[in-house]
Amino acid sequence: MALFYFSTSHTSHITNICAVSSAYLFNTNNKIHKYGTRYNNNLHLPIVNLSKFNKGPYISGVKVFNHLPEYIKALANDQKCFKSTLKRFLYHHSFYSMDEYYEYKDDRTA
């Protein structure tokens, strides 16, 4: 896995998590159920009871990936295109905290 270095540690953290979180390693919601929902292509977030697991890299990776704009998530099957598009997105939107990343709303979907 190639590492991309940006101006902030949070941006590189997002890149590293999303580089691993792909449709090949995780189940998407459309594999869990056959309903055409708004979040059909998001990664399925498992229900867990342990807070230690909730704060771990698996759940964090799924949450970070699911918050990406749809046009980036659609490229998850093509790793090279996905990484370059993600790198470009994070270069244009410098997030200085994970809260700032989660507050971001994509203008294309509004």
Structure description:
Helix 1 packs across helix 4 (57-66) and helix 1 runs antiparallel to helix 6. The protein has helices at residues 9-20, 29-32, 51-54, 57-66, 70-73, 79-92, 98-103. It has one domain (9-103). It has seven helices and no strands. The chain has 110 residues and is an all-alpha fold. It is globular, with a radius of gyration of 14 Å.
Give the count of helical stretches: 7
Order of helices and strands: HHHHHHH
The value of Rg in angstroms is 14 Å
Inertia-based shape: globular
Question: Mean pLDDT, nearest integer?
Answer: 75
Major β-sheet profile: none
Helical content (DSSP H or I, runs of 4+): 40-55%
What is the strand content?
under 5%
Low-confidence stretches: 1-7
Q: Into how many domains do the coordinates divide? A: 1
What structural class do you assign from the helix and strand content? mainly alpha
What is the straight-line distance between the termini? 33 Å
- Oligomeric state of shown chains: single chain
Instruction: Tell how many strands the DSSP assignment holds.
Output: 0
